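My main concern about presentation is that the manuscript never shows what a single data entry looks like. In essence, backbone conformation is discretised, so a fold becomes a row of integers matching the chain in length. An entry of this sort, consisting of the sequence and the corresponding backbone structure tokens, reads as follows:
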Amino acid sequence: MRVGVFFSNSAPTSGGEYSFQNVVYSALKHVETRHRFYFFFNKLDAQAVRALVDVIWFVSPFHELIDDVPYVTTLWDLQHRLQPYFPEVSAYGNWQRREQLHSTLLNRASYVIAGTEVGKQEIMRFYHVPEERVRVLPFPAPRRQTRLPAIEGKDEEILKAIGVTKPFLFYPAQFWAHKNHIRILQAAKRLQSEHGVNFSVVFTGSDKGNAAYIYQQTIDLQMHGQVFFLGFVKQEILECLYRSAFALVFPTFFGPDNLPPLEAFSWGCPVIASSVAGAAEQLQDAAMLFDPRSECELTNALWRLYGDQMLRKRLIESGYRRVEEIGTADDYVNRMMDIFDEFEPIRQCWGN
């Protein structure tokens, strides 16, 4: 079967969407399958699509559908339905645009790909897509990485160059309101005042309108000197931060699946993550979970990890095991091939 694969116009600064699309594209280039692939980037030409492909896979949700070409779509989340109060899913017409996109995209799809069973249930609940057309494929995890003395020496050089001091809490996330950067600041301040433990905080990621507010909070909390705003960083620095951090702290309000905890697992970084719907399914026993509304719960989790080396070791080992269970981008793409195999007899019923 001739499969068109569409990749949206995302840059490295867009975060998880870019990372996901990049690893899927790399895996598709060497997958063993009888299907033929035609790649489309940023824009679809309806005439070319009709002439070249039998089905399209939208690796990211996309709204320029072609009426007479069946498609499969990957879905990130439906948070505009679950948490419409966040400005990034409601302000400036965003709620209406999202709702219009998903009501058409999901109901017409041959298959919808969710990352978790929780995500599948949300699709069925809000848009009444039949269960047999919603498939669960966990987001791929990076391969387990090996720590070497030479790498650790290089990491110290990188940290010195960017001015980051240990021990530090790491959060790679764009500055959207739902990313909940404020909770890390509150917990770090509380940990300092109640237990005398001082952590630096390292934020990476591009500004989506909330960075100035978070920066002001560091001043109000008298934490300005211990919080680092690094913006978008190269992959080499990102990996160094994962390897060197006391923990990845991931307090987002959005789910049901997220990529940074999987990246942290692969680099042997302990994970403390918010208990959003889907987190327990995706992360299982490899992360400490907390209520993202509660600075107290996050403080307690940090204090517990700080004083328990056996817990730290167990989280790292569980993280390595979890990435093996989830599988890589190659595994993800092979599972997609099974879906195309299943659809092929149906698509053989008509021509282009």
In short: Residues 243 and 267 are 6 Å apart (CA to CA). The mean pLDDT is 92.
